[in-house]
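Example 447, ligand zinc ion.
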Amino acid sequence: MFYMKKHSILASGVSCLLLAGCGGSDSSSDVPVSIVSPNISGTPSLASVSTYQTTSMSKDIEECSKAFLTNNSCDLLLIKPLGFNKENVTIEQVQERLVVSHQWMADSFIEALEEINDQDLLNLFKPLNSIVISYDIRPSFYTTSTASMYIDPKYVWRSKSEWDSIHKQEDYRNGFQTEFQFDKAQRYVHETTNHYVSYSNTYTPLRNESRDASHIAPGLFRLLSHELAHANDFLQEHDLTQIPSNGYINDYIHSLKKLNNELIERDPLTSKLLDKAAKIAFRGDSMTNEIRQLTGEAAGDAFEADKAAAFYSYSSPAEDVAMLFEAYMMYKKYRALSDFAFVSIPQTENFSCNDWVIQWGQRSRLSDDGVQDRAVFIASGILGKSESAIRAELASLPADPEMLRAGQGWCSSQKIMNVNPESRAIVSAESMTGFSENTRYLEDLEN
Ligand SMILES: [Zn+2]
């Protein structure tokens, strides 16, 4: 996700912290500041972060990374994006701009970047001033205020002690999704095995207790592809090289034409219905009768006729760009196909995965000609490669999307072509006795 000019939300978040529970008669009004949540409506406190490495720039990097909390931006006299005037970005250059609340977060992040070993991905860090990983970041986001990326540490934990140091909090956007008749689900599966491509981000005793860089890499790669798409959409390479030596980075970015503006002019999404539904589901707009009555089947019909990579694409033009780009990157790197579905909401408290029933779903949305044309345009713009080079990388995609069978449970639908899907959790010998249900699928329902 991304933030741009969310000043009113940020301002209220900050004053809540200072007042220790604003909102009049709220029962938390006399709770001491120290135990108020460090993350309010997605805005982390970043109260205990510092740079991973100490250099002459450390103070400026750290101050820049926190500037959005006080509605400020970063002074171009003091700090410019890390890839300004650079041909290729190195891991060392990324490391210099890392700001963390716990050293292990940076250690694991760097190990995973080494494991990913992808120069195209590293070059996407060019427009960033800093990369922040803190125990209280959820969800991950990018903001133009600081030209920085903020990463939820659930993507990089390796052990129980690391997991325990993360502040657990539900994504605040989950509160927007009440009253819908359907839910949405998404996962990346390997094109020939049907296996999940990424490993679970949730610590589970016996089932998912420890991870190394090879387990962390695919899920982090997807997240980075998404957030870095935002960074490169807002500050494109040709604008990065023209960056002035004074003023604020936020003002400069605001003055620019964005890649998502170009996509809208050229090939916009057209479904007004899904546009309205997504603004309610992801941005907190008020529910309407029309959307309250919308079924997953009807949403699917509108979705199929349009050209988005996912439902989340409708939340803003920038998310449209990011969802197209991550689908392209996941196929190129891991031969991963995106399964996307509108599913029913279980009516029982003792649900399991197949209680989420497919109402409309497709595998490999990127195989749709309309979606692919838009993804090629975006990937070409972000990576600075020709459209024909991008198309060549997608040449082995299935010729068409494949429908997931309506009426089938979400986990059952993973198995196409008679290959057994693998859960991609780190299964220990003890868990083979099978006393805990694998809840890996719950992550497919997250934003
Ligand atoms: Zn996003």
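Summary: The radius of gyration is 21 Å.
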